[in-house]
Amino acid sequence: MNKYKTINRRKSDRIYVGNVPIGNNAPISVQSMTNTKTTDIVNTINQINQLKKVGVDIVRISIPTTEAAEAFKIIKKRVKIPLIADIHFDYRLAIKSIEYGADCLRINPGNIGKKRKVNEIVSCAKYNNIPIRIGINSGSLEHDILKKYKSPIPEALVESAIRNVEYLDSLNFNQFKVSVKASDVFSAVQANKILAKKITQPIHIGITESGSLRNGTVKSSIGIASLLSDGIGDTLRISLAAHPVEEVKVGYDILKVLGIRFRGINFIACPTCSRQEFDVIKVVEELEKKLEDIETSMDVSIIGCVVNGIGEAKMSTLGITGGYKTSGLYKDGIRQKNKLNNKNIVQELEMHIRKKSNELKKFRTINENDI
Ligand code: SF4
Question: Where does [4Fe-4S] cluster bind (predicted)?
């Protein structure tokens, strides 16, 4: 966790997506997007609930057809999480989605077409007090901007964003956030850095179409961490060609590492070598799966031997340091009398983590109530 760098967040306006605040120092929200067919209501609801379980704040859903909009109406009534309707090309679907309860719209005004259509969306959003995200992507820039810049360079993305910001401003609509995304990490970072200096609206960040679980996680981590470290970003989505649940987990992991927002366990584990006294990799993998439901933030170090085990354990909420047949247990940096049996290490450590999580939860609730 980042204990050394203070991140000064960029000042921005505040909007709300449902009950989730965005911008003006609100916690950085983690978003994801369903990848089921929206018309498959049961599976879409299941996926939203899976995302909720791992801590998603806001879920986006594609509305490509009228049938999808009708399905959205039903889905919206059955889930308790803010939903963003993702609309391209057809302004009527945007209006329908607002009528059907969308908490926010994501549109790229460049592909909605005539101004009259954008105006209708905006006046409907205004009437229903619904925010909009202007989502500019390197793959779908307006033709004239692409012609001017020849390729979707950062300046081109920003010009498109500013054009749309100014247009919504001219309609006296201020409930919106903006994103400029590219699959190239440096373009995305540069575009956001330029944009951040030019607008006051909240910024949604992400590296679009970043790739598979491993590749996309690396690209997103580099790009998003770079922006967040500079105080840019009020809400984020990690775009992965993987199950959306992974996007949320990676999102939280990035925020955790930067010391911005904490949820769940921050595992610290050694890379292992022949000195390890138990199978560190297996233990970490099993515990990560078993403890996905834990929301309390804590550091747990799982280290295979005494070389680094004691030092790490002393800095963690809970730590184990591998020993012959049994491993040392530390709580809040203090060595405990009882040791863990290496054969049963997963079960025993899980029990200690859950106990500690409950203690911390009670302690934090008492303190919050005191304030
Ligand atoms: Fe090897 Fe011990 Fe270092 Fe882990 S902490 S990598 S087991 S020396």
Answer: 270, 273, 305, 312
* Residue identifier of the C-alpha nearest atom 1 of ligand 1: 273
How far is residue 290 from each of residues 125, 287, 346, 370, measured CA to CA in Å? 42, 5, 9, 33
* Exposure string over 42-51, b if 16+ CB within 10 A, otherwise e: eebbebbebb
Least confident of 140-154, 165-179, 346-360: 140-154
How close are the terminal C-alpha atoms of the chain, in Å?
A: 26
Q: Whose structure tokens read 């439901």? A: 293
50 and 117 within one domain: yes
Q: Ligand 1 pocket test: which of 267, 273, 324, 327 has the largest number of ligand atoms within 8 Å of its C-beta? A: 273
Ligand 1 pocket member 307 (CB < 6 A)? yes
CATH number of 291's domain: 3.30.413.10
pTM of the model as a whole = 0.91
User: How remote is the CA of residue 280 from the centroid of ligand 1, in Å?
Assistant: 10
Share of the chain above pLDDT 90, in %: 89
- Per the structure, the complete domain to which residue 341 belongs is given by 265-370
Q: Which of 267, 274, 276 to mutate to test the pocket of ligand 1 (most atoms within 8 A of CB)?
A: 276
If asked whether residues 162 and 309 sit together in one domain, one would say no
Res 371 pLDDT > 50: no
Domain termination residue (choose one: 257, 287, 303): 257
